[in-house]
Amino acid sequence: PMALATAHEPMLLLAVTEFVANSAAFTYFTAGALRRNISSSMIPRRFPLQLTTKSMGVFSPQLQERYPDQPMELHLSARWQPLLSCHPDGLHGALFGSAEAFVVLPNATRVPAFLLNIDANVTGKPTITGNRLRGTVSLTGPLCLCRAGLRGLPVLQVKRLETLLKFGLWLFGVPWANSESCPHPVP
Description:
alpha+beta, transmembrane, 4 helices, Bactericidal_perm-incr_a/b_dom, Bactericidal permeability-increasing protein, domain 2, elongated, innate immunity, eight-stranded antiparallel sheet, single chain
């Protein structure tokens, strides 16, 4: 049980319980809304690693040998529903995802390249600036990558990829999430 503040003047009071947050996460997960496909054309040009077999050759030389300089796609999805908990400093979440990479052949056929499980801990903090409700997202724990066991796929150097992914999330992912936090006027 929690006690809500009493107001002597008009104010906005927002209370979110873990039940509400986890119910929303469950609904998004079961509806399949926690999926995203990323093509090579969606990666910013300034990012040091492009989504091609040539770039991924750093992590898997066999990939570049089998499919020289071909575009790739990443299919990101949640393996389980996110687990959310409410704390005074924000909403904490444990995310359990997977990234399946495909090589896109000239005839548009997609060939599986690798499958990684990705787990991360994040914190979302709501803020009010002026009359705008905003939020920020940050990584609060280690980013864990684990190659899923599929036979016949090229060898993948996961530690190198994990380091680059952390850098990419820090450089692009978190700033993008923070820029996408829709500023809503506070009544």
